[in-house]
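Annotated sample (chain length 264).
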Amino acid sequence: MAMNQSPDSVPYRPTPPAGISAPPRLRGRTPLPASDLVLSVLIPVYNERATIETIIAQVRAVPVRKQIICVDDCSSDGTADILRALKERGAIDTLVFHEFNRGKGAAIRTALAASTGNVVIVQDADLEYDPADWPGLLEPIVDGRADAVFGSRFLGGPHRVLYFWHSVGNAVLTMFSNMFTNLNLTDMETCYKAIRGDIARSLRLTSDRFGFEPEVTARLADANARIFEVPISYSGRTYAEGKKIGWKDGVAAIWHIVKFNTFG
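Output written by the structure step:
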């Protein structure tokens, strides 16, 4: 016992009963100095001719040091030519082309493999998610409280009013995922997941299409990652405006949740 401590000042640490291990201690903060932050922005692109230049401009406008990685998943509407022009102007740091359409998850894996930043985030090429929300997503990681931060569309941020059944489907899928992962997320299917780069690149990811969201959530839960949620804005698209995900993807997500949380 230290000379300047009385018996009453020594913290009480009960001894666990025989055969029962002590509960794990909470991890301390692991802050990331803001001056060292490099954000790798992973942008999967498929037939986004109408929006790609705008979203790249929005990404570049966020005042954070960043690495912009675009993966064109075999677009057929002229998007590839726009991406090449953006790369030539220096608006994109890394540009990769898939020779055939492999799906969003595959494009994210390709971008993740090319990333070097100490934080990564996925940015859809449409205009549904606003990069202006990044500071709120990055703050718990920079502060050292989180390994991953999910941007939730259902925590009170401004959002475009659209499809009722989509919101019901999202709630059902999130609850189903939570039952397996034992997390209390409100928006598992969100695009905005900011993750420490070393952790993101260590995850074993295999999904090619929209199964990426339940898979990365399951992998983070398996890794005992510290996960935070913050509210974000959301401006959803109609199908006439180019929305691609549909009810079949929702049904597939149920299988993905079971697969990635049960069979590894």
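Annotation: Residues 69 and 227 are 24 Å apart (CA to CA).
Annotation: Residues 36-263 form a domain with the Spore Coat Polysaccharide Biosynthesis Protein SpsA; Chain A fold (CATH 3.90.550.10).
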